[in-house]
Design a protein that fits this description.
single chain; alpha/beta; 5-stranded mixed β-sheet; globular
Length: about 180
C-alpha cells in the first residue's frame, strides 16, 4: 500500500477542475464555456468565466476578468507569483495582458490552433525576442474535459441556430396564406 494517501492527486488537475466549474457557469449563461482562476501559493484569488455576451463587451474573456479580479484582490497590477488556470488556450489579447501582468505560469486545458497565443497559433507568452516578461506554460491539463464542454456548447448552438432558421422559414411560408 502506498504511503501517499493523495494517490494521483495533482494540484494542476485540482485547479483546472475549478476553472472547469467557471466554464460550466458560462455554459449555463449561453456564453462560450471558458473558465479561469488565478492562484497565488495555494489560494485561489480570482475566478471568472466568459461574459462577452452578458456584458456586451468583446474584452470580457474569462482570462481578462480573472486578471482584473486578481489585481483587485492583491491591490497591485503585478501578479508575480501567480498562476492562471484557463480551460482554453488564451487568445492574443489575453496573452498580451498576461505578459503585462507578469504572471509566473499559465496552465490551460485545450489548445486553439486557429487563434491561440500560447503556442497553438503563435506564442506570445514565451516570445523570442521576449516581450517584457515570459511565462511558463503547461498545456493539456484535463484536456478531454475542456474539449468536451466546448464541443457540447457549439453543437447545441448549431442546433439552436438550425431550429431558429427552420422556424423563420416556417413563419414566412405561413404568412403567404395570411
Amino acid at each position: 500500500m502506498s504511503d501517499n494517501f493523495l494517490g494521483d492527486f495533482h494540484p494542476d488537475n485540482f485547479y483546472m477542475g475549478q476553472a472547469l466549474r467557471e466554464a460550466q457557469r458560462a455554459y449555463a449563461a449561453q456564453e462560450v464555456p471558458i473558465g479561469a482562476i488565478i492562484v497565488k501559493g495555494d489560494q485561489v484569488i480570482a475566478r471568472a468565466w466568459n461574459q462577452v455576451e452578458t456584458l456586451k463587451d468583446a474584452t470580457a474573456h474569462a482570462e481578462m476578468l480573472a486578471l482584473t479580479s486578481a489585481q483587485n484582490a492583491l491591490g497591485d497590477w503585478r501578479l508575480e507569483g501567480c498562476t492562471l488556470f484557463v480551460t482554453k488556450e488564451p487568445c492574443p489579447m489575453c496573452a498580451g495582458a498576461i505578459v503585462h501582468c507578469r504572471l509566473d505560469r499559465v496552465v490551460f486545458g485545450c489548445s486553439d490552433l486557429k487563434a491561440g497565443a500560447a503556442g497553438g497559433w503563435i506564442n506570445l507568452l514565451e516570445s523570442n525576442p521576449p516581450l517584457n516578461h515570459r511565462c511558463e506554460i503547461l498545456s493539456g491539463v484535463l484536456e478531454g474535459e475542456c474539449v468536451s464542454i466546448l464541443k457540447s456548447f457549439f453543437r447545441e448552438a448549431r442546433e439552436r441556430n438550425a431550429l431558429g432558421k427552420a422556424h423563420k422559414k416556417a413563419g414566412r411560408q405561413g404568412s403567404d396564406f395570411g
